[in-house]
Amino acid sequence: FGLKPGDIDGLIGGPPCQGFSKNVPAVRRFLDDPRNRLMKVFLDFVRTLRPKFVLIENVAEVLRAYDGAVSKEITDCLRDLGYRVESAVLNAANFGVPQLRRRAFFIASRTRRSAHLPSPTHVYGESRPALANLFKGAVTAWEAMSDLPPLEAGGGSDPCAYLRRPESEFQHAVRNGDKRVHNHVARKLTPIQLQ
Asked: Is the CA virtual torsion 76, 78, 81, 84 positive or negative?
């Protein structure tokens, strides 16, 4: 693409996760899985392009996978290239997304300004009631979807009318003044999938 080192500000990627994911049985996960090498390919792009910041997203397990070897390799590589690195598992529910989705993030910067992972804006669960006065509560699936018309498998249209007026702050924000629902279409399922 004719890019020289330093031409781009940021490089963001989420290399394949199957070699780290707990959704793949442990007996079928191994460090030398060819899909895991794509993390090294991403790091090769970082090495070549030298962006000012790097963000890597993956399954939460990548931080502990193979006794921490993958996390250590990522962190060591970025540090050797002159980046300051921070990593952690973040839950999407703590940032106003109506989904419990834990993901690992690595953020790295080679500028004078450090890059940091964000602090939660929403509190999830009953375990932290003291924080409820500081943060909004996590957005529930009902708060996100109760205004959408129900769909059968293969049904829906784009665009279509909302079922009712917005009932939550989230619905109001997502609509952003739009009067129609977009992309509200269900995939057609086979009889076996429906069973």
From this structure: negative
